[in-house]
Fold:
Amino acid sequence: MTTVSIDAAINAKWPEGHSSYSPGSPEELAIIGIDLLVKELGTEAAQSFIQQIFEKYPPHQGSGHSQRS
Structure:
């Protein structure tokens, strides 16, 4: 399995405020992305958008545990 590290600075702005993020892993980047999607689209629309993305991938036949070491 591949270990991915991320070196990024994300500055997000919206009318009510702003946030700065520095994700270091794909998991942290996903949390940031989901948070911003919910702020932009609302919970239900964000869930629908994410579901459309997951439909592109075949189901994983694993033990249900993360493969991360």
Observations:
- Residues 15 and 40 are 11 Å apart (CA to CA).
- The mean pLDDT is 87.
- Helices lie at 26-41, 43-54.
